Write the structure tokens for this entry.
Amino acid sequence: MGTSLQGKVAVITGGGEGIGLASAKQMVDEGASVFIVGRRQTILDAAVTEIGGDVVALQADVSKAADLDRIYEAVRVAKGKVDILVANAGVQTREALGSITEEGIDYQLGINFKGVIYTVQQALPLLNDGASIILLSSATALKGLPTRTVYSATKAAIRSFARTWASELKARRIRVNAISPGPILTPLLNATLVDEKAKEAYMANIVGAVPLGRPGGPEEMGKIVAFLASDASSYINGADIQADGGFAQV
Ligand SMILES: NC(=O)c1ccc[n+]([C@@H]2O[C@H](COP(=O)([O-])OP(=O)(O)OC[C@H]3O[C@@H](n4cnc5c(N)ncnc54)[C@H](OP(=O)(O)O)[C@@H]3O)[C@@H](O)[C@H]2O)c1
């Protein structure tokens, strides 16, 4: 166990699974008190058991500002501050141009776009001066991947949020950075690999285009999140860390 986050209070949306869970584990290992947020209580409870340290689960839907107000009030009562905010919750549905529905647009915009704004905006009164905000963008923001019209656009917006908010929060010395993962083996990705054909196509078309020749692991992303949360990254601000095995870099 390290001590780089000793005494820090972190909130991670979507912290029950995948990249959020790995980030929560890494931060608890580094000494932080962590609050994980998600919609399904069963997933959150399993994560708390798996992490087994200084972690509390709070049930909320990030697309609802009132839910976020409720959980930030709980964090305020328990700890009085937030030092690290990871706006990680995100969803992906895939629709080819020609079959995009209003429902699909609203669902992804509600969580990936509005939800990220609410996650940061509702936290402002509780965020310490000098806090670190970390947003999850995606390599898809840079790549023209078929069937990702809405998803990729929400992720490009998140990269833009990091730029705008790093400027807006200047007076409070709050750093805002994005991470753009490539293909990372998580429940989100696994849900799209519905059958052998889909898996084969994914391995050939996406993983085949990764110079490292493999998908990433959530724990590799968790280490980057913890680095951006820590003082070791104190001069990194407004940046987008490309964590994709080279997928969108070559
Ligand atoms: N995996 C990849 O290859 C990859 C690549 C690039 C970027 N990313 C981004 O990285 C982030 C994490 O992805 P992941 O792969 O770890 O996803 P994941 O395995 O699906 O985990 C995401 C978590 O977010 C929670 N969540 C979803 N909607 C929510 C909402 N409205 N309110 C609160 N919690 C919500 C989910 O729990 P509930 O359903 O219970 O709420 C889930 O536990 C996402 O923003 C994703 O777009 C992932």
The chain has one domain: 9-185+217-242. Residues 9-185+217-242 form a domain with the Rossmann fold fold (CATH 3.40.50.720). The chain has a mean pLDDT of 97.
